[in-house]
Amino acid sequence: MEKRKAYDIPIWRKLCLTFEEAAAYSHIGENKLRAIARDPRNSEFVLHNGTHTMFKRDGFERYVAGLSYI
Fold first, then answer.
1. pTM for the whole structure
2. What is the helix, strand, coil percentage profile of the chain, to 5?
3. From the first residue on, what is the mean pLDDT of each consecutive set of 10 residues in the chain (70 residues)?
4. CA-to-CA distance for 9 and 32, rounded, in angstroms?
């Protein structure tokens, strides 16, 4: 049985999501999410922290909600 850490936060409560978390949350593949992150038009919800790229959850949700296809 895996021991949970005291600071584990549910995905829907996190401010920023990793590619893995965003893929699980949105059902969009990680490769597609990486392509979205590379597009400069999406800089509003993409966060670069050193070598790590993450999605700001609220902006990412609005972006996905506005799509009719991906």
1. 0.82
2. 45, 15, 40
3. 72 93 95 95 93 95 92
4. 25
Question: What are the DSSP calls for 35-65, one per residue?
Answer: HHHH-GGGTTTEEEETTEEEEEHHHHHHHHH
What's the CA gap between 22 and 60, in Å, rounded?
A: 9
Give the pLDDT confidence score for residue 4 in this predicted structure. Answer: 63
- DSSP annotation of 11 reads G
Question: Considering only CA atoms, which of 47, 42, 2 is closest in space to residue 21?
Answer: 47
Q: What is d(CA 27, CA 67) in angstroms, rounded to the nearest whole number?
A: 14
Instruction: Report CA 69 to chain centroid distance, whole Å.
Output: 18
